[in-house]
Amino acid sequence: MNRKAKGFLTWVTAILLTTITDSTAEDARVTDVLLTTITDSSAEDAITVNLNDPCNNYTALDQPWRATNATAELSISDSNFNWNGWYRLLYYGMNIRMPESCDDNFTCSTYFTLWLNGHHPQIVDGPVTREVCANSASDSNCCFTSTWIQIKACAGNYYVYEFVRPDYNYAAYCADVNTITPTTTPTTASSTAMSADTPKNNTSDPCSVYSVLDNDWRKLHSSWFFDLDFSYFDDTLVEWSGWYRLYLQGKSAQIPEYDWCWSFMSCGGYTAFFLGGSHPRLQDDIITRDIYGYHHSVEDLSQCNSYKSNPIQVKACPGDYYVYRLVKPAVSIPVPTYCAVTTTFYDPCNNYTALDQPWRATNATVGLRIWDRYFNWNGWYRLLYNGMSARMPESCVNPSRCGTDFPLWLNGSHPEMKDGIVTRGVCVSLGWACCFISFTPIRVKACPGSYYVYEFGKPDFFYTAYCADVNTITPTIAPMTATSASVSGMNITDTPKNITSDPCSVYSVLDNDWRKLNRKKCSDS
Predict the structure, then answer these.
(1) How far does the chain reach from its first CA to its final CA, in angstroms?
(2) pLDDT attached to residue 331
(3) Which of 199, 203, 367, 492 has the least CB density, counted as fewest CB within 10 Å?
């Protein structure tokens, strides 16, 4: 090579390393690191990016709710996050770092603020270990509990932290607003990416060019009782690109519409996202919809639009499903996630399971203490009472009825046939509170023949069961055998119609382990 070419830099290698850290694929975290080796013609100046340096391999946390000027209203707990690796703190794209002194508690969107008990290192120090303290107001103790993390100073005036799960609930790592500085280096050394790549051809029909999102944690559910130890997923950490189709356990799903917003609802994160409008029809082509969200501790339904995120595009596709052009949510929203509910395109009036269980009646007072959470709810159900049509009560039911301690009743009127499928809340009655808590809403449809079908789900509150109002019993007009109740694990073969055959050679097989007689202890109740 001649002298004129001396000093000319050539790209020698560009290797995209992808490390998948979650083997379950439910929270696929993909770390993208671009390794670039630059070499001049004389090989005198070779620059190599060290892949093991956390300054080049971290997750950017742009979560303004961590700021020391944010109140504790949200009560976020970092013990619910799946911490893994190194993190860089940002505040609306600007550098920020942890506080080095005891901060007021009830800030940083949590009760117990986590602060750094020591100084940040310099670049020459490399990775160092520092104590992280939790502040408590009850006894004015600035370090009532602590843990240890590693920190490193990086070129560009920022720091990376190897955060770990705090041992204490309702504690969160803080970001000191007094340390904000402009960003001079890229903030995307690593990122959280989707498990399926979206083809780059944006001119293609999104109904045939999309990525699949099948995360069971996106399922909308009540977070009042059983989610005391769950994990937060944050869609602001995802690199969204292109169109997506939602699934839940392999079944087609959709983003819930606004009528799914009820108190104590969650879907994997802290802020549940809903579609601010109806889904399009096939003839509508691509439409734009606003995205609204609210955090799971909201009890007043007027706060369902507590947050407004960036709008998304939606398209209805042949084959009865939707695709969404999802985008990064606004970082000001605390731990948001796009929710999912199963899609029902078939007519549930022709595809349901008949529940003829008289113990569900509002006049049943036998102390069975049945809990509907233990049922494997799947699909749609029709309530019957000794063969006659019945429906859920629309008003408060006294405790110790319906075969349980705390009856469940419909918080709203039943629909008419012209209404199609509607969403209704379900209340639990405790006697002193007719609607102590409103659980995951259910869908209801009015059917020809003066009956209703319900898409029941697992209630979270203990000793609760769906009721059948004996005051609504009517003779059965429509057939009751649209579908039959199937039990998971059943192995049943068809029995020949010839009833004169020897039953010792013509029978069906029942092989269910749950039929085994067990000795039940008091603690198992």
Answers:
(1) 83
(2) 93
(3) 203
